[in-house]
Specification:
Blueprint (H helix, E strand, L loop, with lengths): L7 H7 L4 H13 L4 E5 L4 H10 L19 E6 L10 H18 L3 E3 L19 E4 L4
Antiparallel strand pairs: 1-2, 2-4, 3-4
Helix pairs in contact: 2-4
This protein binds zinc ion.
């Protein structure tokens, strides 16, 4: 168990995420070797369009958008190390992914990491590596 806890901001950003995503994130923070925060949960189509224009997102079919159940099926997690987000530190994102995927396996949740799109599916996916991004896959 680590001493890390989700901040109020992180909990707020998790609010409109699918419960399966919430339980995985809640478990992951307990077993993760580094601290992290929830950077983004649900997104409006306007926000997503702006992200695509900026080049930080590549699709308008993002799982951050409200899905059929009205919730986000994706979450972005940002490492929090020494009071900042180390964007250039890929191993930090991997560390979070390790905790997230372990938690997902424990809880029987089918989860895909943006840093490894090939896990759980679509090897034809040509989206860029998206270290902070996690999404639910398959039937829920
Ligand atoms: Zn994302």
């Amino acid at each position: 168990m680590s001493n890390f806890r989700l901040s109020k901001t992180s909990l707020l950003r998790l609010k409109q995420c699918h419960p399966q995503l919430c339980i995985v994130v809640t478990r992951a923070i307990q077993i993760c070797g580094i601290d992290f925060m929830v950077g983004c949960g649900i997104r409006t189509i306007e926000e997503q369009r702006a992200n695509v224009e900026k080049g930080v997102s590549k699709t308008l079919a993002s799982k951050h958008l409200p899905q059929a159940d009205g919730m986000s099926h994706a979450v972005d997690l940002w490492p929090w190390v020494n009071g900042r987000i180390p964007w250039e530190d890929w191993p930090a994102f991997e560390e979070i992914a390790k905790a997230m995927l372990t938690a997902a396996d424990e809880l029987g949740v089918n989860l895909r990491w943006g840093g490894d799109w090939n896990r759980n599916g679509r090897s034809d996916d040509e989206r860029f590596l998206d270290g902070p991004h996690f999404e639910l896959v398959g039937a829920l």
